[in-house]
Structures are given as C-alpha cells and as structure tokens.
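User: quick one, sequence for these tokens?
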C-alpha cells in the first residue's frame, strides 16, 4: 500500500524541534569517564558583542562537521563552546550606551561601570550563541565558558604570576607603543591594521648652525618635527660627512639638535637624510637609544599637541600638521609637497589612526616561548594546514617582538600587581597581597590597567577544561584534537595558544592539528562590507533556505587555501539538493514496508552496483574529512546521492518496485543505501538527515548511529553497469542533440571489437532497452549509414535518424542560432579588443566578459559541427 508524504518540506517546521530534542536528550554532552577514544575541539570564542557573520558560519560549520563525523565514528566528542569578553569592543559598546543616557564611564567610576557591563552582558550579550544553535552546532552547552568567568580568571592570574616571577613579564617605563587616541589604550602590533592611503612627502629645510647649508628632509608627518632631537645621515655619505657632529636649528622650537651618523639611513632614498623623533616613531625610537638622544613626547592621550609643542599646544594632530607647514612656509623653510601613497596603521576596533607614543606598559618576553612553538611545528608535534602557512608562521615567530599586554581600559582582567606607596615596590601574588613584599607597608594600590583580551583567550584550550585544577575533563580531552579557525588570527590567537599551552602544560601541545580556512567573499571576489552593500547575512540565509542548504553550500566551496566566492544563487542551488534528498526518500518510503537487507546474497546486478558506489563514496568522504578537504567530501556525497542513487539506481529499480514479486529485495537495498547515505550526509546536513532517518529506521536518533564500514566487494558488477550507463548516456546525448522526444523508441547499433563489451551489453540488454527507450539493440562491426553517432573508449554507438529528424527544418533552426552567435561574438570580441574598456573596467567584469566570449565561441563551434553532420546525413 502506497503511503503519502508531502512533495516539499519546510525546514522551519522541524529544525528548532529537532535541535530541542538533541538538547533535551543530552546528545552533545561529552562524558569524561567514557572509554571511547577522545576527540575534542575548542570553539574560537566569538566576542560577547558579536552576532553571526559569514566567517563565523563557515568556521562553525566546519567544526560541526568534524565533531559529528567523529561521533559517528565512535569517538567521545567534546566541542567546548564559549565567548570572549572582548575588552575594547565591549567597553566601546557600553560607553556608547551610557553616552545615550548622558553619562560617561568616569561619571560612574570603575566599579559601577563594570557592574553595568555585566548587566549589559546578561541582557544583550550572547546573541551569537542562539544563532550558533540555529546553525545546528553540536557544542556541549553545559560546559559553556566565558573568558571573565571565575575559573578562567583564576587561570589568567596563575599564568601572569608565574611568568612575572620567572622574569618573563615586566613593566617598562617610556616604551614606544601603538596608541589609539579613540580607545585610549595601547595596542599590540597585531592589533594595528595597516592600510594604504593617499598621503604626501613634505620637504622641509633644517639650517646647519654656523653655515649656510640647509638639510632638505622629506617626511609624511611634519607635525612631529616639534619633537625632533636629531638629523641622521649615513656615515659614508660624502655629501654630508663634513657636517656630522654639527647641529641644526629646529627653528619652530628655537632648539639646536645634533647631526648624527648611522648606517640605518638609506643614502639612495630621497635626499639621504632623515629627521629623528625618538618618541613618535619605532625606528627613531631605536636610533634614540643607540645615540643617547633626548626623548620628547609632544602629544597627549587624545593625539593633541601638549606643552612640548610650544605655540601649537592644544591643536589636534592633523590640524597641527597644517599649521606647521604654514609656519615653515612663512619662514622660508618649506620646499614642496609630493603626493605619495604609504601605509598607515589603524586601531583594529575603531579604525582610528594609531599614534606611536611613549607610555608605561606591561610586556611579556615572548621569544623563549615562541622558540618552543616554532620547534613544535618543525618537529610535527603540531601540524598547521594548509602547509603553505608554514613560511609565514616561521617568519613571524622568529622575528617576534615582546608583547605589550596592558590595556588602559576598565573591562577585562585587571593586572594583579600592586604598587607600594611608601617604597615603590611592585608586588605580584596569586592572592591579593595585604602588605608590600619589600617594606611591609599596608599602603598598596592595584594597577589600573587590564590585560590584553588575547592573553586570556590564549589559555582557552586548557582554562576551559578547569586548569589550574587537574580535572577529569582536562585529563580526558587535553590536548585537543583539532583547531579550526580563520588564517587572520593565526598570530593573534593560534600562536599564543601554542606558546601558552606548551609552557603551562609541560610541553604538551594545546591541539594536534590546526586547520586555517580561507575567507568568504562576495560572488565577484570582493571583501564583504556594509559600505559596499554586499554582505550576506547567515541568519537571513537560514530563514530563507534552511540551515542544511546553507551549511552544505559553505562546505562545498571550502577548498583548502582558496577564498570562497559566495553567491546566494549557490545556496538556492543546494536547496534543490535538499529537495532531491527528500523526494528520493519520499519515493522509497511511499512503498517501503520494513524490508531489511539481512545479507548480500541473491542481489541483482544494479543492487551490487549501487552498493559498490556507496562503499566508494564512504571511502572518499572519510578520507576527505580527515584531510580537511571539506569541498571534496561534500562533492563526493553530492555526486553519489544525486547522480548515482537518484539519477540511476532509483530509475533502474522502478520496474521492480512496481512488481509485487520483485519489490522486496529492491526496497531492502534502496532503504539500506538511503539509511547509510543519511549517515554520510549527517555531518553536513544534520537536521534533514535526522528528520528522514527516523522515518526510514524508526530508531531514536541519527546521533546514535554508527558510520558504516562496508566489507563487501562488487567491483566487477560496478564495472559492468558503468559500461551500460555510458552507453545509455551516449544515446541520451544523441536524443538531446537532435531533439528526439524521450518517448520515441529508437534502434541502436553498437560497433565494437571487444568481446567483453558485447557480453556486457547482451547480458544487460533488457535493462539498457528499458532505460534508454530502445526497441532494438544490436552489436555490429560495421559503420551505420545515415545515423548519428557517439564514441566511447570501448565502443561507438549509432542511432539511425531517418524518419526521426526533419533535417531541413533542423538545419534552418541551427543556422538562425548561428547568426545570433555571430552577432554576440562580434560584440564581446570588440569589447575585449577595446583598450579603453580594458583599462577602465573592473577586473571581475572583464573576467566575466572573457568567460562569456569563450562560451559563445564554444557554442558556435558545436552548432557549426552539428550543421555539418546533419548536412552529411541528408
């Protein structure tokens, strides 16, 4: 009896219900007492301020694939979720909220402000967690962590105190840092984003005291001349050797500064001399220390000129630039302005141009830890994939600078250091000290700075598992198995986790493998941004197409080392795959009555063919997932299910399904293949596979299923049916090329000298005739006249066309099409020869035109060949 199922499904009707059931039944929970082998991943913690963007969606889809794949393969899986407190970003959000109320954080004071941040987190933070659940993420939500949790804060303090007592953390006075005038905090080098701008070189004159000579110096930042303390030349530059040791007059400040010699100066660049501002440039900072120069800081925390700037005091830095140039011109010391593109650093959070500034900051001597992390990759202890990132990793790690870890904000882990008001000693302890460690004074004041957010997230793989306590979770799941993240935080986060993990877990790596995925761009390869209006919102895509189609699209395009060009049309295309899976399942379920494949005896040849294809698909998918070739894994299951199972096997068994005497074995095999296909699909499409799996198996959940390992072998049968399918495909191609109706029965002649091919086609003639709609299939050794033909490696097939095709009408139609193609060919060919067009058009537009032009030429060639063939048959 036929059962009825809806022709289409709406994911919105079952996704949330299925996810709730998974949570209710605790399927995501990791059991630290399990005897199963462990497989663990820590989630790259999204900012508490964040909401799901395409990068998150890709990253978490790939992690979920790995977790579900390993769970099905018998591992005890832990996917540790959580969020980052995101110091600067969160403080900015709350400060904006307060500003709308007419209040500043300083009005509230530190303690009250931090209370407001926690209130904001409770009310508004964590939006992204609910969005990750909609995506289908199988995280162990009972273990969800936050980098400001009490347990994680304990780990942070333990690490800080240990490193300080070891001499690896130190406080430096008057160190040059990257200062954000908007966020009012120092930034590490990694937190500075460099962007090329249209700037200028300003050529200024510096008169040498006691001579008529004037140095001509080019600078992009003339305002900093107010703090110049030297002019430098190369010691071997004959133009200036006689001036080394003299002084020049810094006219604006009425101050004499020395002329120094240093090999750092490039004689060939510009005029071969440069101004030295040790307090406002990293290179000049080094020169200043080397030559014992004066360090003059001429800007305040808002990047306005301070009292060291004389008459320019109070001016914002860019206004000061204008006024300095005007004054120098007035004094006859301004030569020219030359347009010049150059790199400028900006704050990674607010994009404000950073200012190199002297400041008292806390640092980690990171090189000893970096050396261990380098060694871990060199020896294979930690694998970074794709391996193309190795060179970048080694270059950066081998040239690493001390890490500035202090931030001048309130939200974050406050540095556990106390200053003695009596003797100035710094006391650093795990517990809050009651007295100075040196003089015993009770007058202690804690450091106001907080730690860089990346300090706490660098401990994530072990702090989330309970360290510094020796928990059962840590024993079972550390080191973690895999880290999947974007390449853009390789140094922000990945390298630091490696350094901290190796340091504080006795040389044990935080993860065995790191997979760095690429970026998602728009369909034209452009970076997605709100200003460009090309952002694709993941939640909108899930609402529109369902989580499964969206996830599968991301996986299908996640090739190693290649950015994803995402077009919404692709997601729509994979929604068709979702519908295909449902329709195939619906077809089988409508006739299915619990038939089981208990053994592999007495199977038809097409049954053995699909089973062998299923085995091959499983092998391809397993290998690809283990190698992080997600696109290949998705491609393998797509090709198998749509093109082997749906297009061929279901068509081949339809006559058996409609025959009561033959249907049981066909349905047993079909349901077996469907059930196992759903398991193979599950890591990519968790909701749909769960939905259908319960219908097919009546089992509790696909989450409890096992990834099948197929022991049978039907290679010979697969080869035989592949040959038959190739013949059917060639016949179908001829039908399409000559517009022969599918219902029209044909005669086919196969020319071959291979006995094995003849045997295959004779043995399977009934199957071939049925699927190819043939009234006759004959073997021949001769060429057939007035027939269309197609060639394979082992045979050639002929279809006589007499009485099937109106040759004259078909030729006339093709000639009409040829004229249109000639016109299009001329249009696109002309565009691509137009130098003005090639010079001004966007590269992606030109590329599309080239592809269209090639398509037109290929079609032109095919139509011409078809006309010639038809003319020869008349």
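Assistant:
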């Amino acid at each position: 009896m036929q059962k009825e199922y809806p022709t289409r499904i709406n994911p919105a009707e079952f996704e949330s219900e299925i996810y709730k059931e998974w949570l209710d039944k605790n399927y995501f929970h990791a059991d630290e007492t399990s005897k199963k082998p462990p497989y663990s991943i820590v989630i790259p913690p999204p900012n508490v301020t964040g909401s799901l963007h395409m990068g998150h969606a890709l990253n978490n889809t790939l992690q979920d694939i790995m977790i579900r794949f390993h769970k099905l393969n018998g591992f005890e899986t832990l996917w540790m979720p959580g969020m980052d407190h995101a110091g600067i970003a969160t403080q900015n959000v709350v400060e904006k909220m307060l500003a709308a109320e007419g209040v500043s954080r300083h009005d509230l004071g530190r303690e009250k402000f931090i209370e407001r941040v926690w209130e904001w987190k409770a009310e508004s933070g964590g939006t992204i967690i609910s969005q990750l659940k909609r995506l289908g993420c199988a995280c162990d939500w009972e273990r969800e962590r936050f980098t400001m949790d009490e347990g994680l804060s304990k780990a942070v303090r333990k690490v800080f105190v240990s490193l300080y007592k070891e001499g690896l953390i130190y406080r430096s006075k008057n160190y040059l840092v990257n200062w954000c005038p908007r966020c009012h905090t120092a930034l590490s080098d990694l937190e500075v984003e460099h962007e090329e701008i249209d700037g200028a070189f300003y050529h200024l004159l510096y008169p040498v005291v006691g001579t008529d000579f004037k140095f001509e110096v080019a600078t992009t930042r003339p305002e900093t001349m107010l703090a110049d303390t030297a002019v430098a030349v190369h010691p071997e530059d004959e133009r200036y050797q006689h001036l080394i040791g003299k002084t020049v007059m810094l006219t604006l400040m009425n101050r004499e500064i020395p002329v120094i010699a240093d090999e750092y100066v490039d004689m060939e660049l510009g005029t071969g001399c440069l101004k030295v501002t040790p307090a406002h440039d990293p290179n000049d900072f080094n020169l200043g220390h080397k030559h014992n120069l004066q360090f003059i800081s001429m800007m305040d925390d808002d990047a306005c000129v301070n009292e060291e700037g004389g008459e320019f005091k109070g001016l914002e830095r860019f206004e000061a630039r204008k006024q300095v140039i005007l004054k120098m011109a007035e004094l006859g010391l301004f030569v020219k302005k030359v347009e010049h593109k150059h790199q400028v650093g900006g704050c990674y959070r607010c994009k404000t141009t950073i200012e190199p500034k002297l400041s008292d900051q806390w640092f980690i001597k990171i090189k000893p830890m970096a050396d261990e992390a380098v060694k871990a990759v060199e020896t294979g202890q930690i694998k970074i994939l794709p391996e193309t990132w190795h060179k970048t990793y080694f270059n950066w790690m081998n040239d690493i600078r001390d890490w500035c870890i202090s931030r001048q904000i309130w939200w974050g882990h406050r540095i556990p250091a106390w200053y003695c008001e009596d003797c100035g000693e710094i006391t650093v302890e795990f517990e809050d000290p009651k007295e100075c460690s040196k003089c015993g004074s009770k007058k202690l004041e804690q450091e106001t700075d907080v730690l860089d957010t990346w300090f706490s997230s660098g401990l994530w793989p072990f702090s989330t598992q309970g360290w510094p306590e020796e928990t059962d979770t840590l024993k079972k799941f550390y080191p973690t198995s895999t880290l999947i993240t974007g390449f853009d935080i390789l140094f922000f986060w990945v390298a630091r986790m490696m350094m901290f993990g190796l340091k504080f877990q006795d040389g044990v790596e935080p993860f065995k493998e790191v997979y760095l995925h690429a970026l998602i761009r728009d369909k034209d390869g452009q970076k997605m941004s709100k200003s460009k209006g090309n952002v694709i919102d993941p939640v909108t895509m899930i609402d529109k197409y369902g989580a499964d189609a969206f996830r599968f699209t991301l996986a299908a395009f996640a090739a190693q080392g290649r950015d994803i060009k995402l077009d919404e049309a692709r997601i729509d295309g994979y929604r068709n795959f979702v519908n295909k899976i449902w329709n195939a399942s619906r077809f089988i379920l409508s006739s299915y009555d619990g038939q089981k494949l208990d053994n592999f005896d007495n199977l038809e040849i097409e049954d053995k063919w699909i089973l062998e294809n299923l085995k091959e698909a499983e092998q391809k998918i397993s290998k690809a997932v283990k190698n992080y070739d997600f696109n290949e894994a998705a491609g393998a299951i797509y090709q198998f299910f749509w093109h082997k199972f749906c297009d061929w096997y279901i068509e081949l068994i339809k006559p058996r399904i409609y025959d009561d005497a033959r249907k049981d074995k066909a349905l047993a095999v079909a349901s077996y293949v469907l059930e196992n296909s759903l398991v193979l699909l599950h890591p990519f499409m968790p909701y749909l596979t769960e939905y259908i799996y319960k219908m097919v198996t009546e089992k509790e959940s696909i989450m409890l299923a096992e990834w099948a390992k197929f022991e049978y072998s039907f290679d010979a049968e697969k080869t035989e049916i592949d040959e038959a399918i190739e013949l059917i495909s060639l016949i179908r191609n001829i039908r399409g090329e000559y517009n022969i109706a599918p219902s029209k029965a044909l005669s086919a002649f196969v020319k071959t000298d291979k006995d094995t091919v003849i045997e295959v086609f004779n043995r399977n003639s009934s199957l071939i005739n049925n699927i190819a709609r043939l009234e006759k299939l004959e073997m021949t050794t001769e060429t057939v006249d007035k027939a269309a033909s197609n060639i394979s490696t082992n045979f050639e097939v002929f279809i006589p066309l007499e009485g099937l095709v109106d040759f004259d009408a078909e030729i006339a139609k093709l000639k009409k099409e040829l004229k249109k193609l000639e016109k299009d060919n001329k249009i696109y060919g002309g565009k691509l020869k137009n130098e003005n067009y090639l010079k001004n058009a966007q590269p992606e537009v030109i590329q599309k035109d080239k592809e269209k032009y090639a398509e037109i030429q290929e079609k032109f060639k095919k139509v011409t060949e078809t006309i010639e063939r038809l003319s020869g048959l008349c």
